[in-house]
Amino acid sequence: MSGPKPLANILEITPYKGGQKLDHGWKLSSNENPLGCSPAAREALSKAAEHLEMYPDGACFALREAIGKKYGVDPDRIVCGAGSDEIFQLLGRAYLKPGDEIIQSQHGFLVYRLVAQQSGAKCISAPETELTASVDAILDRVTDKTRIVFLANPNNPTGSYIPFDEVRRLHKGLRDDILLVLDGAYAEYVRQNDYSAGMDMAGEEPNVLVTRTFSKIHGLAGLRVGWAYGPESVIDALHRVRGPFNVTSVGQAAAIAALADDSFVTKSADHNNDELDRLKPALEKMGYKVYPSVANFLLIQFEDRDGKRAEDADAFLRARGIVIRDMKAYGLPDCMRLSIGTREANDDVLAAFEAFAKAD
């Protein structure tokens, strides 16, 4: 007996694989916060865990209120999810059908493509310029089938971003019935003056949605809490397709506490920027090509010769207890992505990279 068969488009999906880890050493493959999470968030989680027999608040009322107060936006125009990943899945359910198209930049986050495939839609990748999203390339690929444009800004895995005037130019070039999704997972790390996560635009325009997460700078990746802010009509649609209790009670409690701990966020951003400034030139001095990054990771390119390719570096680093992320799935087979770790971890990384550079 053959049993039930899934839809054909589902069998075409290559499941997403997160960053791997070793039994020992440093895991620097998933862009996690090396400082952990806010002590206040940990305490709030512990208190909330005293009542695990109770269902969470399905509306995430207190969390939405806290987010609204923090960013000065209407809580009724916020929807929460199990990480921003779930928000993307909800968008697929609400707005995509077979034959539709989404557009992303060439090396955009892999989950966007998965969302399209699950809905029977097609993912169109727009070429980048020096690993940076190109507004012109995205607009050139808009068709009457385009329903969503996903823009990760900053982008994972390249670490690049486009200035906000370019984001506005992109939006101006889109039809009103195309939803522009601004993925700000790494927004808190960016300190460039020409950058904006797009909250104002999401508050003003009927077809702009901003997504954010507590997984990165807040260090709550294990709890899966994300959110989105945008037009009432879009938020209403997402509420209609989400699960009734899609964010756990402990996740909501920890997120509220994390949101109030500005000192932890500042400490995390300072550490990240200090280590970016230390690691990038040090690696370049060893002869590696390292792309500029405003996020909490670096994209490193390796030579195309025996013994010095990306897979060779991966094996060398793993033997020393260091795991970083290969980029084959992103169409960057000669690159690897290094998450910023603790200073101790980063010292070991520099020593390992130097040894690899000198190895025969």
UniProtKB/TrEMBL annotation:
Keywords from the named record: Amino-acid biosynthesis, Aminotransferase, Histidine biosynthesis, Pyridoxal phosphate, Transferase
Pathway assigned to this chain's UniProt record: Amino-acid biosynthesis; L-histidine biosynthesis; L-histidine from 5-phospho-alpha-D-ribose 1-diphosphate: step 7/9
InterPro entries in the cross-refs: Aminotransferase_I/II_large, HisP_aminotrans, HistidinolP_aminotransfase, PyrdxlP-dep_Trfase, PyrdxlP-dep_Trfase_major, PyrdxlP-dep_Trfase_small
GO BP annotations, alphabetical order: L-histidine biosynthetic process
Catalytic activity field: L-histidinol phosphate + 2-oxoglutarate = 3-(imidazol-4-yl)-2-oxopropyl phosphate + L-glutamate
EC number annotated for this UniProt entry: 2.6.1.9
Top-level taxonomic group: Bacteria
Classification via Gene3D superfamilies: Aspartate Aminotransferase, domain 1, Type I PLP-dependent aspartate aminotransferase-like (Major domain)
GO molecular function list: histidinol-phosphate transaminase activity; pyridoxal phosphate binding
Residue ranges of domain Aminotransferase class I/classII large in the record: 27-352
Positions bearing N6-(pyridoxal phosphate)lysine: K216
Cofactor field: pyridoxal 5'-phosphate
Subunit structure: Homodimer.
PANTHER family: HISTIDINOL-PHOSPHATE AMINOTRANSFERASE, HISTIDINOL-PHOSPHATE AMINOTRANSFERASE 2
Record family assignment: Belongs to the class-II pyridoxal-phosphate-dependent aminotransferase family. Histidinol-phosphate aminotransferase subfamily.
Identification of the protein by name: Histidinol-phosphate aminotransferase
Organism: Henriciella mobilis
Annotated gene: hisC
